[in-house]
Every structure is written in C-alpha cells, then in structure tokens.
Amino acid sequence: MNTLTIAIIIISLVLGLAIGFGLAKYLEKKNASRIIQRAKKSAAGILKEAKQEAEGIKKDKILQAKEKFIELKSEHEKVILSRDKKIADAEKRVRDKESQVSSELARNKNLNKDLEEKIADYDHRNDVLEKKQEEVDKLHSSKVQQLEVISGLSAEDARAQLVESLKDTAKADAMALIQDTIEEAKLTAQQEAKKIIVNTIQRIGTEEAIDNCVSVFNLESYDVKGRIIGREGRNIRAIEAATGVEIIVDDTPEAIILSCFDSVRREVARLSLHKLVTDGRIHPARIEEVVKKTTKQIEEEIIEVGKRTVIDLGIHGLHPELIRIVGRMKYRSSYGQNLLQHSREVAKLCGVMAAELGLNAKMAKRAGLLHDIGKVPDAETEVPHAILGMQWAEKYGEKPEVCNAIGAHHDEIEMTSLLSPIVQVCDAISGARPGARRQVLDSYIQRLKDLEDIAFGFGGVKKAYAIQAGRELRVIVESEKVSDEKASNLSFEISQKIQTDMTYPGQVKITVIRETRAVNIAK
Length: 523
Description:
Elements (H helix, E strand, L loop, with lengths): L2 H149 L3 H49 L10 E5 L3 H8 L4 H10 L2 E3 L6 E5 L3 H17 L4 H29 L7 H9 L4 E2 L2 E2 H18 L4 H10 L14 H11 L4 H8 L11 H14 L6 H18 L4 E7 L4 E6 L6 H18 L7 E5 L10
Parallel strand pairs: 7-8
Antiparallel strand pairs: 1-3, 2-3, 4-5, 6-7
Helix pairs in contact: 2-8, 4-6, 5-6, 6-7, 8-9, 8-12, 9-11, 9-12, 10-11, 11-12
C-alpha cells in the first residue's frame, strides 16, 4: 500500500469523524430542545396546580380564621355576660346591705330614743326614792332615840346583849346536835361498814387450795421410768443437777414425784420431763438443752400470765416490768396461799368495796393487785415486802395513792388516802378465809431458801439446790475457780456456817459437785 492510499484513508476517516460529530451535535441539540419544551410544559402544569392548591389553602385558612374569630367572640361575650352578672349581683347585695343598714339605723335610733326616755324616768324615780329614804332614815333615828329613852340602853348595848344571848343559845344547841350526830354516825358507820364488808365477801367467792411442794408426773409405762432413770441413774442425776428438783422414783406405778419448794423449778422440771418423754431422746446433753429451752418458755409464760391477769381485771397502762412481776406471782406462795390468786382476789374485793364507797374502783383494783409485789424477789432483802413493793411502784410510775396503799397495807407507813385502808381490809379478808393459808409451809420454804443463800455466800458457787426436804444441800461450783481440794474445804465451811447460823431438825448433808467439760465444734 502506497502513501496516497494511506492519505486517502486518513482523510476519509477524518471526514467521517467530522460528519459524525456534527450529526451527533445536531441530534443532541434537537433532543435538548425537546427536553426543554417538556420541562417548560411540566413547570407550567406544576405552577398551575400550585396556584390552585394555594387558592384552596387560602380559602380554608380564611374559613378557619373566621370560625376561630367567631368562637373567640362568643367566649368573650360569655365572659362579659358572666362579669356583668357578677357585677349586677354585687350591686344588688350592696343595695340590700344599704337598705338593711338603713333599717338598722332607724331601729337603733328608736331604741336610743326609748333608752333616753327610760333613763330620764329612772333618774326621776331615783330622786323620789332618795327623798323617801331620807324620810325613812329620819323616822328610824327618831324611833331609835325614843326606844333608848324608854329602855335606858343605847342601840349598841342592846345589840351586844342580844348577840351574847343568841351566841350562848346557839352553842348549847350546836353541842347537843354535834353529840347526837357523832353517836348516830358511829352506829351508822359500824352498820354500814359491816354491810359493805359482808356484801363484798359474799360477792367475791374463790376456791382456796394450799400450794404443796411436790408434783406428780404420770408415765405411760414402766419402760419410760427406766429410760428416765438411765444407766446407773445418770439421767436422773442430770435432771436433778440441771433443775435443782429432787426426783423421787418409788414403787408407785406409772408415776414419778417431783419435790422442790420453788414452784418455778418444779414446773421447769415437769415440762422438761414431758418434752423428753414425748421426744424419746433422754440423755444428759439432751436434758440440759431441754431444760434451757423450758426455762425460757416459762419466762415467756410468766409475761403472758401477767398480761392475761391485767386484762381480766380491766387494768390498763401497767408498766411491762410490773406485768412481768405479776406473772411471777403465779409461782410464789404466801403462807401456802398462791400469791397471784391472793392478789387477784384482793383486787376484786378492793374494786367492789371502792364502788360501794363511791371511790375509784379501777385504781382500787390496781392497788389490790400490786399490794404484794414485794414478795416476788428470790433474794432475801432487809426491806419489808410492803416498802419494797411501794418503791417498785414509784419506780415504774404508779400514782401516789396506789404507792401509799401498797406501802401502808401492813402499817409500815402512814396512810394518806382512802385506798390504803381498803387494801389493808381486803388483804386481811383474803388471808383470813378458812383454808387459805398455812404457816408451817411458809416457814419451811423460808428455811430452804436460807440454806441456798448460805451456799451462795461463798465464792465460786455457781448453783445451789436444797433437796430432800432440806436434809441435803447440793452445791455446784465453777471448775475454773474451785479445785478439788477447795471443794472439800468448801463443803466443810458451808456445813459449819449452817450449824452456826441456822436452826433445823435432823442433819443436813452438803454435797459439792465440781466437773470439767471440754467442748469443741466441728465445722
């Protein structure tokens, strides 16, 4: 291929490209003009639709504005009408007040006029009365002067003689009347007092039962008795050591006797035995555990008994400590008479007697219930029980009348209120009922307490129990403080102290028990 041919081909290509480019430009320009036409038509349509929509929105807004205007206008008119109505009502009330004030002024004016007329009439009458009083005084003076001339005595002398004669007569009459009144009051007072006491005794009747020092624990079978005794008697010794109660096992079928002067210990032992027999596990460790739980249960029962007692008697606002003391009365006796039963009876007697005399029956019941709280402490004190009870009552916020009645019911202090003799009389009535008290039991219990107190007077003593009707004293000591040699010496010293300080029948055996325990817990 030669150069000319190549040149022709190149020229042909260039011309083809130029014609194609020009044709493409022409077609692009034509297409662009068509697009512009369509865009103009579309824009014109959109503008037309926008104008129509704007007109519609404009009309809606105008309608809404008109409706809102009409609504606001109606509300405004309502407010204006309400305000006008209130103003009209206020104006009406003002007019009514004005008319009322005008009528009141007119009525007051009439009243003032009547009052002035009455004052003028009163002044006139007063002047007339003063003139008449002057005339009466002059006439009285002239009559007195005439009487003085006739009698030969002045008015003062005549008055003194008259007063002296009347005074002597009045004294004689008054002395006679006082004497008759005193005699009648003595007869009436004795009759009324007897009547009140008899009626009170008849209305309060209670059963009397002397507290004894033994309790019987019934068993289901003889095998249970053997389990309670234990191997070589270890269980029964553990129960006696833990409770301080002597357990008597004899030939009595299906029964064990619990003997102790302290009712609380005896009850703890009885309940502990019941739990042990019911549970079936009877051994020394279990016995100590059950005794501890039963002791806590008895303390809770004491509080419950106190609460029930004050509720039954209708006594309110009693201090919790006094309620606990009242509950402990259940396990105390006075000359064999149950202390709680005695105090309840005294409280009821005091309430009835105070009501008959027109006094405060509730306060009388309160004083009657609390009059023997000084007998509750276990430890012996030098203070009489009436004074100790009064001190407790004062400590726990009782009223002075109640405190005085407690302290004066055995004449340790002077009586300052009428409640005091009532409590004293009712205490005597309750204690004097046939079969209510027994002196021997009380002295016996006191002897056993004295035995235990002597043991507690020595150092290292942990527990002390008087058993065998006071013929044996068991003393449990702390192993850390008392050695074996000291235990023997302690037994001798206690025996010498008992011989020196006490009077008792027969012999007293002193047993000192010392044991060492090593306890560890595996976790």
